[in-house]
Each structure stands twice: as C-alpha cells, then as structure tokens.
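Re: [ENG-882] Designed sequences occasionally contain unexpected residues at chain ends

Forwarding the minimal case from QA. Structure tokens:
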C-alpha cells in the first residue's frame, strides 16, 4: 500500500472545482500529526486555508504560482520553534513517561535540544521534523485520491525574499516570530488524470554499499 502511494504520487498542480470534504482533509492532516519527530517534539503546526482572500495572499507569497490559487484547500505547513522550549518540550517528554531526571538531561543537552545551540539550528531541526509530516500528508492524499503539490518557493525567513508578503501572511495566519511558514501543501482533485512520470536519478547513483561510490 505504501509503496503504491510512493510510486503513484506526483505533484498535481491542476485541480477540478470539486471541494475536498472535511473528513478527507482531516485524514490528510491526521497523517501529518502522526508523523515521527526528534524526541517526539512535534515542532509543527498545520493551518488549513480555504478562504479566497487568504488564498490570494498565499498566491502572492508563492510568487504567483497558479496551483496555490486554484487549490480548493491549502495547508500552511509551519515550523513551530517554540516546541523546543523547556515548557513544551518537557511536556511531551512527560507524556512519553520520561522521568524528571531524564527530562532535564534531554532538555539541557545540546545534542538533543537544538534551541541551546541557537536560532539557526532550531529552525533547521524544525524544518527537518516538518518534512516528515508533509511527506506523510502527501502520501495520505495520494491514497485518498487527492492531488497535492508541495510549494516551498515562498516569501519567508528561509528565502529572504525582499517583499512584504512574508510579513502580511504571518499576520493573517496569526504566526509569531517563533513560527516559520516553511511551505504550502496545495490540495485538490486532479483536473484530468495525467500519467505519472518518475524522473529520478538511477538507483546506483544514489545508493552505495559500505562507502560512497560503490554499487549495491
Ligand atoms: C520541499 C519542496 C518544495 C517544492 N516547491 C515547489 C514549488 O514551489 N513549486 C512547485 O511547483 N513545485 C514544488 N515542489 C515539487 C517538486 O518540483 C516535485 O516534487 C519534483 O519535481 C518531483 O516531481 P513529483 O513530485 O511529480 O514526483 C517542491 C517539492 C518539495 C519537496
């Protein structure tokens, strides 16, 4: 089942007008919520946007990528840097049943808590976690027959794009300086089915055995 979804998934950028049912959207979001993360930190937030005015702003934020405007629903995928703060991080550790001593060890360890290293490292690790959640959502969308496209080329803290859309969308989505809108996941039923073309590097170019450059 998973391999089917992996093989058949493709970026879908043209959608029919059919809205996505809430029950379907919720399943896609649930797949993201259940994704794995570093010490279960879950440093992500997902904001579902269907409002035309907000979509119009997201369209500008994405440098006018048509699929953003055309999608009946857009999931704003946000890295939540505050998740690494002692209060939040400690809470998920307690839920895991971690004792007080271990919790303190994890929260104060530079190896395990990137927020002790700095903003850049925290952002990097948060984006890393978010990637798993977004991957899971794309696969669940595929499984449910919903077309999806990840849109990472947007005005935000990562692209340093020189316009004020990044700030406008942060305000619109109620994001703080601890929240980074990393990417959008545009969702909709595919307009007309096109063939899946997997343009990928050959197996032996990306896989090695024991050391880089040897075939598996
Ligand atoms: C992190 C990330 C960001 C992406 N950003 C964009 C984007 O801004 N616009 C777009 O049209 N596609 C975007 N894509 C889709 C890729 O172009 C696409 O996944 C890739 O070409 C492989 O094609 P496939 O998804 O159909 O297999 C992005 C994909 C990823 C993983």
């Amino acid at each position: 089942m998973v391999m089917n979804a992996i093989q058949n998934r493709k970026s879908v950028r043209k959608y029919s007008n059919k809205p996505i049912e809430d029950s379907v959207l919720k399943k896609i979001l649930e797949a993201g919520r259940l994704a794995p993360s570093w010490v279960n930190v879950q440093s992500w937030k997902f904001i579902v946007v269907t409002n035309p005015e907000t979509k119009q702003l997201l369209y500008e934020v994405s440098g006018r990528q048509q699929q953003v405007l055309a999608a009946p629903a857009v999931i704003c995928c946000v890295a939540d840097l505050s998740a690494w703060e002692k209060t939040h991080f400690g809470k998920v550790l307690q839920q895991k049943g971690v004792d007080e001593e271990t919790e303190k060890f994890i929260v104060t360890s530079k190896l395990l808590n990137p927020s002790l290293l700095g903003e850049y490292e925290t952002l990097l690790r948060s984006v890393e976690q978010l990637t798993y959640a977004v991957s899971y959502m794309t696969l669940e969308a595929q499984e449910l027959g919903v077309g999806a496209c990840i849109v990472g080329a947007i005005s935000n803290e990562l692209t340093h794009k020189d316009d004020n859309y990044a700030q406008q969308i942060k305000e619109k989505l109620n994001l703080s300086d601890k929240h980074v809108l990393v990417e959008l996941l545009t969702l909709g039923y595919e307009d007309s089915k096109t063939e899946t073309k997997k343009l990928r590097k050959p197996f032996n170019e990306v896989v090695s055995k024991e050391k880089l450059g040897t075939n598996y």
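QA comment: On inspection the terminal residues look reasonable. The chain has one domain: 2-206. Proposing we downgrade this to a documentation issue.
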